[in-house]
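Worked Example 4.2. Consider the chain below.
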Amino acid sequence: MTALAKLLEAALFASAAPVPVDALRVMAAHAEDGETTLESALEELRVHYDDDGHGVELVEVAGGWQILTRPEYTEAIERAQLAARPQRLSAAALETLAIIAYRQPIGRAEIEEIRGVGAGAILKSLHERGLIDVVGRGEGLGRPLLYATTASFLEQFALRHLEELPRADELAIALRAPRHATPAGAAPATKGNGEAPPRAD
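Applying the procedure from the previous section yields the following structure tokens:
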């Protein structure tokens, strides 16, 4: 492949939108491969992708050129992306995961005591997703399994380490209702004599 064709290929791959012809002409003018024209370099790229069985093709579109996935592969790529996309966690799963993150290592009985409901199915789901793992056994009756979060948990929630989890006092402040908010339908506060306080316009 000529030097100009390689330069154009790099520029086209780096752009998510069609690269205008004028921009490609500027690149061609500054390329060291002075004997190759823009048109011949683009044709070289087109033939390269067509003849070598690549999954992409060079397409002229919207006044420029772009390297796009071949239409026959689009559906397969979309299916692969959908399969790779992690499913969203339910509210119950997030609640269980939060308990484990803050109290780890922790056993199933303690999780169920905090939540007030059974946690077997949710623990199984979180374990299958790689968000928690068994890290040992407790000292209590039956030596229960103890759970803790994993490196995948940190990665999925964009944390460098567990110390970056919000502190309990920070959560309490974030979840507290505004002090001066008047609930919908409630009467405004009154002064000691029963009169409403003056408005602060």
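Confidence is low (pLDDT under 50) at residues 188-192. The CA atoms of residues 100 and 148 lie 6 Å apart. Compare this with Example 4.1 before moving on.
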